[in-house]
Amino acid sequence: MKVPEDALVAFGSNLGNSLEICMESIRALSRHPRIHLCQVSSFYRTQPVGCRDQGWFINGVVRVETGLAPRALLAEMLRIESLFGRERRNRWGPRTLDLDLLFYGDHVIESPALVLPHAAICERRFVLEPLVEIQPERVHPVSLKSVSQLLKELNLTAHEQQIERMDGICFAP
Mapping DSSP to helix (H, G, I), strand (E, B) and coil, where does residue 152 land? Predict the structure, then answer.
């Protein structure tokens, strides 16, 4: 049996009842016998990136401990996306659910099926804000910078994605 690893998963939705979809997807992830939910960030309303002609997203991050290998965890995340009607048509288009594996321990993997840490972490405020909320000192194993430092650096650039914490919304298992 594999020793549990710490993993961080981003969630997002902008089709349907996005808040409910995000909450239900977290519950679905936590129901797996080899995935233990440790932390859930606040929920955020975020301006779309890439294709801006669509509704705003609900986003956040969860921290789990898992005995699943990285590819098995990714497979479970893809299974959950499909349960919520995820269709992969447009790379940055609207979606009922998006689950991204951000970190899996300190593993660095580059394969066609999986890149760890997630390739776009450093460019996405909608990922970094909730990451900093739950693990501010988490070190990116490639850049060797904390996620707090990555967010500060992103805030110094001309990156203009708007993001709002949804106060009063909290996850209930």
Answer: helix
- Residue ranges in the chain modelled with pLDDT below 50: none
**Residue 13, domain extent:** 5-165
Domain membership flag for residue 172: no
The beta-strand segments (E) located in 22-162 are 35-40, 44-46, 57-66, 98-104, 109-110, 115-116
What confidence score (pLDDT) does residue 106 get? 95
pLDDT at residue 162, as a whole number: 86
15 half-sphere exposure, CB direction, 13 A CA radius: 12
Catalytic residues: 86, 95, 98, 100
Is 85 contained in some domain?
yes
Instruction: Specify if 131 maps to a domain.
Output: yes
Whole-Å CA distances, 57 to 42, 54, 94:
14, 9, 9
- Classify residue 173 by burial, with Cβ atoms within 10 Å: 0-12, 13-18, 19+: exposed
pLDDT value at position 95?
85
Compute the distance between CA of residue 9 and CA of residue 74 in angstroms, rounded to an integer: 10
Reference 108, options 75, 137, 132, 143; nearest CA is 143
Number of separate domains in the chain: 1
Crossing angle between the packed helical segments 18-30 and 70-83, to the nearest 10 degrees: 140
